[in-house]
Amino acid sequence: MVDTMSLRFLLGRSGSGKTAVCLEEIRRQLQEDPKGRAIVYLVPEQMTFQCEYALIHTEGVGGMIRAQVFSFTRLAWRVLQETGGMTRYHIHDVGVQMMIRKIIEQRKQELKLFGRAADKHGFIEQLNEMITECKRYCLTPGELRRHAKRSRMGQASRAAACSLTS
């Protein structure tokens, strides 16, 4: 047996009855099958309390354990908790810049193009932004090295230097 989930969007202007339709359907499902699959009601941040309150005070529903009201933030938090994403430590920009500085100091002799610029004010921040952009577009150090081999010397040195710090 395959357990399927569905996602449904209700769109409309303010006051058109979207919330009432959602709450009524959740109430009906809770009354029909109180021990069924979880029901996730995704609402804007400012509406979570209002919707939880409305579900709790529904007559004829003996509880709402299987109905959960989430904002986007709370849903993301919950997903990260369940998948183990909360156990990863994320380094802030300052920490990343400290690591970049250390790598540059260790490999200064290999950096033909960036060797002298590395000591200039703002260089580390700019390099951090460039590395972030490479990650955003899934550009790997290997791809940078391959590009460096095919390009002119100036671009090649720049790409090779970026791949050293990635």
As a percent range, the share of strand residues is: under 5%
Number of strands: 2
How are the strands of the largest sheet arranged? 1-2
**Rg on CA atoms, Å:** 26 Å
Which descriptor suits the 3D outline? Answer: elongated
Going by helix content, strand content and strand pairing, the class is mainly alpha
DSSP summary: helix tally:
7
Uncertain spans: none
Average predicted local confidence, pLDDT: 81
Order of helices and strands: HEHEHHHHH
For the biggest sheet, the summary is: 2 strands, parallel
Span between N and C termini?
A: 46 Å
Helix content: 40-55%
Structure write-up:
The protein is mainly alpha-helical. 52% of the residues lie in helices and 5% in strands. The chain has helices at 18-32, 48-56, 72-83, 93-106, 123-136, 141-150, 153-165; strands at 39-42, 67-70. Strands 1-2 form a two-stranded parallel sheet. Helix 2 links the parallel strand 1 (39-42) and strand 2. Helix 4 (93-106) packs across helix 5 (123-136) and helix 6 runs antiparallel to helix 7 (153-165). The longest helix is centred in the N-terminal third of the chain and has 15 residues, at 18-32. The protein is elongated. The two termini are 46 Å apart.
